[in-house]
Structures are given as C-alpha cells and as structure tokens.
Design goal:
Blueprint lengths: L6 E8 L2 E8 L16 E5 L23 E6 L15 H15 L5 E5 H13 L6 E5 L15 H5 L5 H10 L2 H12 L8 H11 L5 H9 L17 E6 L7 H9 L5 E7 L6 H4 L1 H15 L1
Parallel strand pairs: 3-4, 3-5, 5-6, 6-7, 7-8
Antiparallel strand pairs: 1-2, 2-4
Helix pairs in contact: 1-2, 5-6
C-alpha cells in the first residue's frame, strides 16, 4: 500500500472487478519522453494472507525498473483493488490473472509470484501458456499438496462458522496485534526483521472496506488445492525459490513438486534463514537470486 519512488498507481477493469496496479513510469526509472521499447515485462504477483497486497514485492521490484517494464497489481479483494462480496475460488484468480496479462502485456511477460498465488499462476500457465514467457515462483504451494487437506486445520474449520468468521477477522486479523502475529508466525523466520512500515502497509490493506471476504476465503481453505495435480502439465520454463523456514510448506515439499516436472523446472534454490516471504525478509538476497533466474530463463 506504499508505492516506491517513481511508481504510479493505475487501474484496469476485469470481468470480476477493477484491479489497481503499480508501474514504473517516472524518474529515476523512465526519462521524459522515453518509451519502454523492447524492454521485457516483469509482473510481480503477491500471495494471500491478512493484509496482503503488492507491497509484498515492493522492496524487490524497483531493483529491476531500470532494465525492465515492471508491473505489480493488487489482486482482486486485496490492497486497493475492488473487494467484491463473494466467496473467492482459484478460478476467480486464474481469470483475473489471465485478463490482467492480456490487457497490460503486448508480449508474454515473466511472471514472478508468491506462495498460493504462485500455485494459481502455475494453473493459469497450464491453461494459457501463450500468456507467459517464463515463471519465477516463491514457495509455490496449493496448501493441500500431495493429498494433504488444509481444510482439516482447526482454524480453517473455526472460521467456516458464519458470524464467528467476521468476529475472528476483526479481532484477530485486521488490527495491529493480528498483523504482527501473522507476520511473525506465518511469513518471517526472524521477527527482528519486521519493521513499522511493513506492519502499517499490511494493516492498511486488511482494513479496507470488505477486505474480509477474500481473506476469509483464503483462511477457510476455499482457495486451496493440490498443486501436485497440475505441475506435470506445466510447459513454461520455471524457476523456484523457497524459504528454509516456510511455515506449513517446508522445502522438501517444494523439491517434490519440482521433481514432478524436471523439463519445465530449470532451477530450485533454497534461501536459508527466511520464512514464507524471502522478498520481504531478505530482499537483497532475493534480488540476487531473481537476477540469476532471469539470466537462466532467457
């Protein structure tokens, strides 16, 4: 919810609602009168969780803005994008990602995505391979991989109770204590790396009107699936990075997923001493890994 220097806020209309996205359009990334010409486009897609938004990648994507066209959307139901009142499904986000890429990218971009959205990006690439140049995935997981059922989780069952779900969201997620707990328990390996700006950005997203609908769909498990069923059908060149201490989804799961399709998955890198979002926890290390992946996938 905080735009980096030189990035402006834009929007586009999809069949499910309006998407807000951020693009490098000003100095120091773009000079007056300069066009992007033949620059490759990088699209950064954030994951899901209490208060998620494009901010999740904001410490990484400016590092590429001098050499690439960079786009970072708030996905439907998150950040500053529309928050339709509905139960969200994976197909909703497949449709939104498809329409976003079609409307913003004249040539297939490199899509860089995180966690559950990275898994949804795999499914989108299986359905629409012509829209992707390559994939870079940070901890891609359907959260029900290899037959594990996320919805059997006690918390997922608890937030499936009507009325109680809204109470839990308001008191346990959409406040400073809830955001800090989520970041410490789910996203970061080292709590000392969480600073006030991160908390403020997540809290701003979590307290948007109707933000609870997408968030509760995620927590209930409505968006979860077995990514292992889709990995063998992926034809797009892909590289994967994985945090050593990713909660619920250890690197061993990632290596199993990568092994399902060695023809598509060109690299797998485990980043030490980080959790689910290495791009927020150790952005400099993540930038270095991404640069290596981009060179590999050219």
């Amino acid at each position: 919810m905080i735009e980096p220097l030189g990035f402006t806020r834009n929007s586009l209309v999809t069949s499910l609602g309006t998407i807000v996205y951020y693009e490098a359009t000003e100095a120091p990334w773009v000079k007056a009168g300069e066009s992007f010409g033949d620059r490759q486009t990088l699209v950064f897609l954030h994951g899901f969780g209490g208060g998620s938004s494009a901010y999740e990648w904001s410490k990484v994507y400016p590092a590429f803005a001098a050499d690439y066209r960079v786009l970072a959307p708030d996905l439907l139901g998150w950040g500053r994008s529309d928050h339709p009142v509905k139960n969200y499904t994976p197909q909703d986000y497949i449709q939104v990602i498809q329409e976003f890429l079609q409307q913003t990218c004249a040539q297939p971009p490199v899509v860089i995505a995180s966690s559950l959205v990275a898994a949804i990006a795999v499914r989108t690439a299986v359905q629409y391979p012509e829209l992707f140049a390559s994939l870079i995935l940070a901890t891609p997981t359907g959260l029900s991989d290899f037959g594990e059922d996320y919805r059997s989780n006690f918390f997922a069952q608890l937030v499936s109770v009507p009325v109680l779900d809204r109470f839990i969201y308001t008191t346990g997620i959409a406040n400073t204590a809830g955001i800090v707990n989520f970041l410490e328990q789910r996203q970061f390996a080292q709590a000392r790396r969480i600073y006030p700006e991160i908390i403020d950005a997540y809290l701003e997203s979590a307290t948007q009107p109707r933000a609870e609908y997408a968030a509760l769909s995620f927590v209930r498990g409505d968006l979860c699936f077995d990514l292992a069923q889709f990995m063998p059908d992926l034809t797009i060149a892909t590289a994967i990075l994985w945090g050593e201490y990713a909660q619920f989804t250890p690197p061993a799961i990632g290596r199993r997923l990568a092994a399902l399709n060695p023809n598509a998955v060109k690299a797998f890198v485990e980043i030490k001493d980080v959790g689910l979002t290495p791009h927020l926890e150790l952005p400099g290390v993540t930038i270095g890994v991404l640069r290596g992946f981009l060179a590999l996938l050219q």
